[in-house]
UniProtKB/TrEMBL annotation:
Stored Gene3D superfamilies: membrane protein fhac, membrane protein fhac: a member of the omp85/tpsb transporter family
Protein name per UniProt: Bacterial surface antigen (D15)
Recorded family membership: Belongs to the SAM50/omp85 family.
This protein's GO CC annotations: chloroplast outer membrane; mitochondrial outer membrane
Amino acid sequence: MDSLLQRMKKGPVSLRVHDVIIKGNTKTKDYIIEAEAEELKSVGSMQELVEASHLVNLKLKALEVFDSVKITLDSGPPELPGTANVIIEVVEAANPLSGQIGAYTKAEARSSTVEGSLKYKNLLGYGDLWDGSLAYGYDHSAEVSAGVYLPRFKGFLSPFTARAYLQSQDWLKFSSYKERSLGLSLGLFSTRHHDLAYNLAWRTLSDPSQMSSRSVRRQLGHNLLSSLKYTFKFNRRDSSMRPMRGFAFASTTQIGGLVPDSRSLRFLRQDFDLRYAVPLGFYRAALNFGISGGFVFPWGNGFLSRPSYLPERLFLGGNISPLTTFGGPTTLWGFKTRGLGPTEPRRQLNDESADPSGVDFVGGDLAVTALADLSFDIPIRWFREKGIHGHAFACAGNVSKLTENAYRDFSIKKFAESLRTSVGVGLVIPTSLFRMELNYCYILKKSDEDRAKSGVWITFSGN
């Protein structure tokens, strides 16, 4: 062993894997483990074998069906010098059933939920995970769902997921409608950078208040959603919570209307997000830039004269950090949930208790946001040890309507002149569960109907 260690320090030690021996799996199919250990057979040196064994160990533990995984490296047959056997010993989960319950805060919806779930591991021996979950929000939102995750099933080269759900979401405070969906989602293909999913759902929009604006009332009722969504994403930043260097890009394309039904929603949506982080070399300071955008259109005859589907439109605003949200335009510092963009007056009722000044935020077909964030260490040792740091930021964004022939009045100049902007400074407190920001935001520009304010904001973002 000492001789081998000395040789490894001097340079690569040529070695190839002769056999991978699997032990301890009484229920899990051999090919499930072999698929995760495939990279062991392509190594060319002892150094590569040690590194690959560590990665395989992590991948097998990530399946969540083994209590322990042990990988041993042994010499190959005497007649085949320069070879090794890899012995993988697994201990399958003694208790395949697990569950959890907790209370969570969803900052983007300014609501709290109570959630519970049950999970059953490896029922069929394919490394499958079956789960059921229930969530109820204090804002009257609720979701019941059940699904299965298959890491390697038969001829599939990537994980396969299926999930049935019944979901209810209350947007009455912002846009005067409630959304209810009964559907099935399928994860068809998933790798490190690519993801392809299909969603089939029966959606119902309703307005119990009977105060919704004209454009919302026109879309109340039942619709069928049949959509295919493709996401390409790569992230080469050193951290998603406090990026110091690197860049990231995400693009999501969704097309709806894949079934020949008159109630099928036909639309095309495209989102993108680009981020870049640059270290500055003092006080662990870094400058983050980001720009994101998206658009949505109905398709078919006369698509520009028809409205886009309300739940698929683009909305901006929310009590979350734009720095940590990644994937498309979502929020701006200092603006409340669905707090900016096109609005319409709500319906007036002969009711003295009704709010005569209410408006509905109806979203838009085109949205763009940009941000700049300067993070830096605070020159106090206790803060540095806890990871607490300061930041200064600026952001801008806008939402515009293009459908129903609104594109005729659209111009880049008008869109740029109506950009909403804000700046501020704050303190970032990271924890193992979330990132909390205590910020002072100053609104530079907003419209009269926007829901935004200058002052102190506390935001939470999940890790």
